Amino acid sequence: MLLLFLINVTVGILLIWSGYLIYNKKKYHLIAGYNDMNADQRKRVDIKRQSKALKIVLYFIGISIAIIPATLQLLGYSNWGWVYAVIILPAAAYYIIISILSISGK
User: Would you place residue 83 in the very low, low, confident or very high pLDDT band (cuts 50, 70, 90)?
Assistant: First the structure.
């Protein structure tokens, strides 16, 4: 149980850190597809607005992955908490991140 908790906290911290890097440090190359775009495509995509939205989503998912399982375990719902943390949240995080990161400029 402790190992799963530590894995979730580590993943949560990494998501929050990548959100910080993308928006605050302007590391746009971390966004999938950004390096493949030409100058015309980059003009059509509002990268600052998208990076802010991505930061908010990464913060939300990172906090959810780190905090919700610990809260559920403290409340006595440890089995459901780990099912939520190990299966549902990473699947939702993957879907949301892939949806936001796939900028094609179309």
Answer: low
